[in-house]
Amino acid sequence: MYEQSPQTYDAATKAAVDIARVVRQTVDFAPTLADSPPLDAAKVANREATNCFGHVIIASECLEQLGIEHFVSYANQHAMVTLFDWSSRRAFLLDVATEELCCDMTGVIGSGAPNPLDQLAMGELRAVNTFFSGELLKRLPPSIDRQKFMSSRPWLSFDAIDVAQSHEHKPRNRILQFLTLPSVPGRMLLIQQYNAARQVGSGDIETASKELSELSGLYLDVDSRNGLKEVDELCRRLILAGKYDEVIDLAAMVDESLVPDDKSKNKLFLPDIMRKIARQTENKELAWRAIKLYEENPPNSLRNGKLAAARKLLDNL
Fold first, then answer.
1. Distance, CA of 105 to CA of 147 (rounded, Å)
2. Does residue 164 surpass a pLDDT of 50?
3. How far lies 183's CA from each of 32, 60, 259, 277, 308, in Å?
4. What is the pTM of this model?
5. What kind of fold does domain 203-316 have according to CATH?
6. Neighbour tally for 18: CB within 10 Å
7. What is the pLDDT of residue 166?
8. What are the start-end ranges of the H helices in 93-228?
9. Would you kindly state where each structural domain of the chain is located, as residue ranges?
10. pLDDT at 29
11. Please, are residues 241 and 205 in contact by the beta-carbon 8 Å criterion?
12. How far from each other are the two terminal CA atoms of the chain, in whole angstroms?
């Protein structure tokens, strides 16, 4: 038992693996469906099945009861538990549903940014790193068919996008955006973001918008390759309902949640929303604000075209 052990990092990772096994055996993994129920911290452990968010919440609460320091991490719409060692700089992954991915992941996280522990110690709300899933796959036993393994765990890469478009696999598809938060706020964030998505599915778009707007700087699904699809759809529905202030709050939340080095079209999401609303409401000030935000982004054909459209809109108002 961990309590009777020297309570070293190695003892903590062993206890974490044991906890993951118990959770995996008692609560089946189930993908999120349109009618999936909301997550509730008090009830999730009593369900027969849950998604990766639920698995993380259960495992995290068990680790917390043992006094084991751990973190909640997120990559490509998938949540997991992570452990880090201050002295040796080792890292451990706990993907509860997958026994093979409850393993050492030292060297899997890119060295371009500071260690997650260092980022969080400096006061960051979340740590931002890169995750090399190809490196992680090298650590699987030789008996495992890696292609089948990845096919059943699509979060490990963005290959499916390129295969659909060009039938090619690109190395960058297995370099993921990797976000890490302290355990307690991490669990709370998973619950709030997941439940907001369920509220959208049930048609309660105003409550969903309010819940998501509270996640400024923390919204998880900001990897540009996922295209902000869920929040974009919510914004579209809010605009149709005439909830313009709520839409701008939501888009601002997304903008403040983008990682610092994001150079993708996600940076244009907020001014795009402002331009759409300005056109519908004939709001000159909003069109002007959209222009200023477009101008803050580096010139390229996409940005230039949107900027020209915003300027034309302002001239016509």
1. 20
2. no
3. 22, 7, 20, 38, 45
4. 0.92
5. 1.25.40
6. 14
7. 46
8. 116-121, 133-137, 146-151, 159-166, 183-201, 205-213
9. 2-184, 203-316
10. 86
11. yes
12. 70
